[in-house]
Fold:
Amino acid sequence: MSSFYHETETVFGTHKNPILQWIFTIDHKRIALLYMGVMFTLFFLGVSAAVTMRAELFFPGPQFLQPHTYNELFTFHGITMIFLFIVPGIPAALGNFILPLMLGARDLSFPRLNLLSWWFYIVGVVVAYSALMSGNGFADTGWTFYAPYSLRTDSHVLPTLIAAFILGISSILTGINFVVTIHRLRAPGMGFFKMPLFIWGLYSTAWIQVLATPVIGITLLLVILERTLGIGIFDPTKGGDPILYEHLFWIYSHPAVYLMILPGFGIISEVLTTFTRRTIFGYHAIAISSASIAGIGYLVWGHHMLTSGISDMARIIFSLLTFLVAVPTGVKIFDWIATLYKGSIILATPMLWILGSIINFTIGGLTGLTLGAIGADIHLHDTYFVVAHFHYTILGGVMFMFIGGLHYWYPKITGKLYNEVRGRIAFGLMFVGFNTLWFPMFIAGFLGNPRRYFDYLPTFTIYHQIAGIGALLVASALLLVLYNFARGLKEGKEAGPNPWNATTLEWHIPSPPPLKNFSKIPYVDFDPYEYENGEPVVHFDENFRRVM
Amino acid sequence: MEQEMAYDALGNSHPITDYKDDYDGEKFGFWVFLLTEMMMFGVLFLLFAINFYRHSEIFALSSGSLNVWLGGTNTVILLLSTYTMGLASLKMRQGKVRVSAYFVGVTLLMAIIFLGIKALEWSVDIGHGIYPSSKILDAKDHGEILFFGLYFVMTGLHGLHVIFGIALMTWVLLLIRSGGIRPEHNIALKNVTLYWDFVHLIWIILFPLFYMIGV
Ligand code: HEM
Ligand SMILES: [Cu+2]
Structure:
C-alpha cells in the first residue's frame, strides 16, 4: 500500500527531485513533518542555550560568560522556545498531521495556505537568527521586549521584532485554516460534540491565534517604527507610555499561554481514554472548559503587571479574574482523574508522559494562583519563583504532553513501533530530572533570588547546583527520546493501523496513511471514545461503512 | 464532478463537502481573516482613544492643521468605490462578465486617485517639517507629537491596505480575463469585495478621528 511518503501533491504540479517534493508539498501530513523537523532542531538549540546558562550558574560569581552575553543567552533561549517552538508547537506539528485524520477529511480547507504558513515560519526563523550574525549581537531584552529598554538598547532587536511579526502571520494563517477546516470538513454526522477532544483543543487555540496574534503583531510593529522613525507612542521622552506597551504585550501573551496548553490538554484526553479503555468522564465539561479558558484568558493579562503601576482597583479585578480562569482548568483535572477511576489503566509510555504532565501542571497551576494573589506577587514578581512556575506549566506541562502525543501518534506517523522499555526509561529520567531542575527554584525564588541575572548570592548556591544536575538529566532524557525514535524508524516492529486499540478515526486507516487519507469518507454517528469490555465499539468495513 | 457521499450503517447517503471547491468555506475563512484585521486596527483605535483622552485639547488643535477638504474628498471617493466594487460583484453573479470587469477597473482607478491625494497630503505635511522625529515636531507639545505619530501610522497602515487592494483588483481583472473568475465561480471577486468594504470602513472611522475633531 503506498503511503504519503511515496507520493505527494505540490503547489507547482509534479517534481522529480525529492527535496522539492517536500518543500513545496501541500499535503498536510508532509507539512506537519516539515514543521516538526525544523521545530525540534530549534528546540535542541534552545536546550543547549539553557544548559549553558545552568553551567554558568553552577557556582556564584562569573564563570565563563560575560554578564551581557548571559542576557543575550536567556533572550535567545526565550525567543527560541516561545516564538519558534512552543507557539507554533502542537498545532503546527501534531495538529497539522492529525486534525484532518480525526475529522475524516482528506486535507485542511486551504492546503496551499498551509504551505504558505510554513514558509512564513521559515522566513521568520531565518530573520530571527540573522541577528546572531549581524549588528551588535543578539537582542538582550528578554523575550518580552519591554519598552523603553527595547527602544534604547543598541543590541540587535530589530530583526528579532520583525521575525516575531512574521511568525505571527504564520500563526494567524494556521489558525484561520484550522477554524475553517473544523467548521467545514467534519465527516458527515460528526457534530461539534462528537469531535475528539484534541480537536476541541485545537479549535480553541485556533481562535486565540486568530484574535490575539494581531494585537502583538501591531504592537511589535509599533516598536519597530519607534526604533526606526521615532513615532513616540511608547517613548516617555515624547509623551508616550511604556506601560501601554506592557498592556498590549500581555493582551496577546497571556492568551498565548493558553494557546500553548490547550492542544496539550486535548492530547491528555486522547491518551487517557485509550489507555484506560473507557470513555472520557465529562466530555461536555472538558470541551466547554477549553472554550471558556480561551474566553476568560483574554481578561487576565493584568496579573503580569501587578507591580507595574496600575491602579489598586485594576489589581483587584485582574487578581479575581485570574482565580476565575483556574476554575475551568480545575474542572478538566478532576475530569481526567475521574476518567482514571475504575478504568483498566495501561502504563504505556504515552500514558506515563501524560500522567506526569498532569502532576507537573497541577503544581504549575497552583503556583500560578499563588502569583495571582496580589500580596504574594509583590514579593514573588521577577524572582525565580515565576520562572519555576512557568517552566512547570510549559516544560513540565505542555512539553510532557507534546512528547506524550509524539509517542502516541508515532506508530501512525511512521508505521513503526518504538522500543517501549527505552521509552519508559526516558520518561523516568525526564520526570526526575525535571523536578530536580525546577523545584529548587521555587525555594530560591521564594527566598528572594531574582530572575534574569548571571550571578546570585552565595546563599543560593545549593539550589542552583541541584538545578544544574537536573538540567543534565533533562538533557539526557531528551536525547534518549530522540534516540529511541530514530532507532524505531530502523528496527521498530510494524505498527499496523491500530496498535493501541484506540477509537478515533485516524486509527481506522493504514499507518502511515495514504496520500488522501480516506479512500471513502465514513459517516460518524458515534461518540469519540466508545469502549465495551475494553474493546472499541465501532468498526468499519473496507468501504468505510459501519459494521454493526 | 459527481457529489461524493458517505453511507451510514443503514445505507442512507450523506453528502461530503469537497475541500477543493467549498464556496462557503472560502467566504467564512475570509471573514475570519477580516476579524484579525479588525483586531489589529482595533489596537490602534484604542491607542488613539487613550491618547485623545489624555491630550484632548491638543489633539483638537492638531487636527485643525489637517486639510479637511482633501480628506473629505478622499472619503467620498472611497464611498463611491465600494459602491462600484459591490456592483462588480453583483454583475458577475448576474452573468454580465464584461460589465463586472469594467466596474472593477473603475474601482481600481478610484483607489489610485485616493492614494494620489493621500500622497499629496503627506508631502504637504512633510514639507512643513511635520514628520516623526523631525526637529520641528519634536519641539512641539507631547500631545502634538503623539497625534501626528498616530496619524502617520494609522493612515500609513490604511494606505498600505489600499495598495494591497489595488494589487488584488489587478489580480481579479487578470482572473476574469483568464476565466478563473466566472459567474458560477466568483469567490475571489466576492472576497476582494469584502476586503474593499473593510478598507473603506476603516477610513470612515479614521476620517472623523483625524480630520473632524478640530472642526
Ligand atoms: C492555572 C493557570 C495559570 C495561572 C493562574 C497563571 C498565573 C501567572 C502569573 C500571575 C504570572 C505573573 C507572575 C509575575 O510576573 O510575577 C505568570 C507568569 C507566567 N506564566 Fe502563568 N499562569 C497560569 C498558567 C500558565 C500556563 C499554562 C503557561 C504556559 C503554558 C504560563 C506561562 C507563564 C509565563 C511564560 C510567565 C512569565 C512571564 C514573564 O516573563 O514575566 N502560565 N503566570
Ligand atoms: Cu498571564
